[in-house]
């Protein structure tokens, strides 16, 4: 009985999702020409495409058998649709579907004009009926909720567009036959990555090859030898982001090498890692040692980074409010506070995102480095029971979260900044809040 109920549920779900795609905005798979998803019989252009040997871009299926296609539209004058200001590399409120079509979600409001190069604006299709979006409890990473795009709900930031671009290869498409008669093959989207969640650094566990492909190590030259003293996070083809305090040391100056794709830094000839010489370092202009504020920096490498199974950027978390309660920290640092040297092997640890007031009680007395206390551009995270934490050598490394239904896509929420000790009871650490610096990052990186 359970088997039949499951099949019926899946079929109902497919029908519901497919019919809801009619009227959504889309782009042609090969030409990137703008269009609207329509029932195939309502799109005369499909017949012409077929005569020319061009396969239509499919948005989905109505009742499992009738194709919903991306139908080219030139009706910009009526206000129903406007192509993006940067059609070659921009995205709207949506994602690529299993058939290669980029399908957006409709909204009733319209954006105001802007001159910002970091924001992609779109006119939304006019709607006269209420649109119901899924409840947050059924969150799917393929769905972008209107209230999660930005402060005015009408645009996609450049970093969000790049997130979609960089993570597209992390999904695979397989074909399956629906369990009803006279139906076509249905495409199913499958996650494709090494991350299978974080079981349970200090109190952490070793990371697997390719599990955190955005992890980077910063190498300093000391007496002709490389010392890996800080972490960083890959965010584009040329840039990693790290802590500003990692950009200069008294004995070794600034870092010279960025290593990517490695979980064991003791290997000199690893098969998966690549070393990149540093071209320039851009610390945040408001960072001022010894204060801890604005502890963030961008590092550009000299040659373009080639992405692979082991090397791929993390997405930037653009929302100031972090809804996920559990985060993941990774680093090559010490496994206990008094250890004489770094382990140089990538570790992972799950940490709770805490209210900043909790860290204010821990660090409130430090007037020299924190004259304004713990502020909104910082994140407080840790395990109050102790035993799990980041430590020396993890500085500059990532604090990330994943969405509920997609463990393959990582969002960078914080950069390891400082702490009081490693893994002690009631001693959480501070991370630079990435969402506070999105505009600064976008203006430099893209």
Automatic annotation (TrEMBL):
<dbReference type="InterPro" id="IPR022700">
    <property type="entry name" value="CLIP"/>
</dbReference>
<feature type="domain" description="Clip">
    <location>
        <begin position="25"/>
        <end position="71"/>
    </location>
</feature>
<keyword id="KW-0964">Secreted</keyword>
<keyword id="KW-0720">Serine protease</keyword>
<dbReference type="InterPro" id="IPR001254">
    <property type="entry name" value="Trypsin_dom"/>
</dbReference>
<feature type="compositionally biased region" description="Polar residues">
    <location>
        <begin position="102"/>
        <end position="131"/>
    </location>
</feature>
<dbReference type="InterPro" id="IPR009003">
    <property type="entry name" value="Peptidase_S1_PA"/>
</dbReference>
<feature type="signal peptide">
    <location>
        <begin position="1"/>
        <end position="20"/>
    </location>
</feature>
<keyword id="KW-0732">Signal</keyword>
<keyword id="KW-0645">Protease</keyword>
<dbReference type="InterPro" id="IPR033116">
    <property type="entry name" value="TRYPSIN_SER"/>
</dbReference>
<dbReference type="InterPro" id="IPR001314">
    <property type="entry name" value="Peptidase_S1A"/>
</dbReference>
<dbReference type="InterPro" id="IPR043504">
    <property type="entry name" value="Peptidase_S1_PA_chymotrypsin"/>
</dbReference>
<protein>
    <submittedName>
        <fullName>Uncharacterized protein</fullName>
    </submittedName>
</protein>
<keyword id="KW-0378">Hydrolase</keyword>
<dbReference type="GO" id="GO:0006508">
    <property type="term" value="P:proteolysis"/>
</dbReference>
<feature type="domain" description="Peptidase S1">
    <location>
        <begin position="201"/>
        <end position="446"/>
    </location>
</feature>
<dbReference type="GO" id="GO:0004252">
    <property type="term" value="F:serine-type endopeptidase activity"/>
</dbReference>
<keyword id="KW-1015">Disulfide bond</keyword>
<dbReference type="Pfam" id="PF00089">
    <property type="entry name" value="Trypsin"/>
</dbReference>
<comment type="similarity">
    <text>Belongs to the peptidase S1 family. CLIP subfamily.</text>
</comment>
<dbReference type="GO" id="GO:0005576">
    <property type="term" value="C:extracellular region"/>
</dbReference>
<dbReference type="InterPro" id="IPR018114">
    <property type="entry name" value="TRYPSIN_HIS"/>
</dbReference>
<feature type="region of interest" description="Disordered">
    <location>
        <begin position="102"/>
        <end position="145"/>
    </location>
</feature>
